[in-house]
Amino acid sequence: MAWTLCYSFLWVFYPKGGLSTEHVFMQFYGTRTILTLLVLGMAVFIGYRVVDHMQTRSQETTSVTLEEQQGADAWIHGFTYRQTRSGSTKWVVNADQAKVFDKEHVAKLETVQVRLFDSAFQKEQLRITSEEGVMNTSNNDFELVSKNEKTVITFESGFQVFSDKLTWNEQARQIYTTDPVTIKGDGLIITGTGLEGDVDKNEFHLLKNVRAEVVSP
């Protein structure tokens, strides 16, 4: 909303003889006082409008948040989901926000990071970052999707895999996608369509349309 401040000027005509010095001084002093009061009044008015605008925006933000939460059984900021076996960590999912739907056994995640550990569950093997994710809290499968940036797998060796979507199968401990994939690392850029990866065996392969390019250092 735009606000326009309007000023009113008063023109005063005096007799030809003019005013005495005392009258001029009193007139100047009175004018300065009026201007000071006007400035203070404007400052109070602007301050009130700023506070009112901030309160309105705060109410709008709150109402949007409540609307987004409708239907979810839980809305969690700073979400962490850890999968363990015999006390050892198999993988960890972190998200900035999560909406949990108990009946559907689904957690919808925003700004996601996944850390997968090796077959001995002792050492972090790879890390995945993604804009969004959907986890099945019943079987622990999850799908990671990025609409603006890519979903990225970063391996301990430094290789990185880029794709729009990646799916994790908990029972098989495998990662796969049918989308286009780019792999970068060690002076190579490899592109293809579709990816299957066995985390425990540390084996990953592209399914089709594979091309490789050597990049100069």
Automatic annotation (TrEMBL):
Task: Please indicate if the UniProt record lists Lipid metabolism as a keyword.
Answer: no
Q: Which UniProt keywords apply?
A: Cell inner membrane, Cell membrane, Membrane, Transmembrane, Transmembrane helix
TM segment ranges: 30-51
Molecular function in Gene Ontology = glycolipid transfer activity; lipopolysaccharide transmembrane transporter activity
| This protein's GO CC annotations | outer membrane-bounded periplasmic space; plasma membrane
Q: Which PANTHER family match?
A: LIPOPOLYSACCHARIDE EXPORT SYSTEM PROTEIN LPTC
Q: What is this protein called?
A: LPS export ABC transporter periplasmic protein LptC
Query: Which organism encodes this protein?
Result: Candidatus Nitrospira neomarina
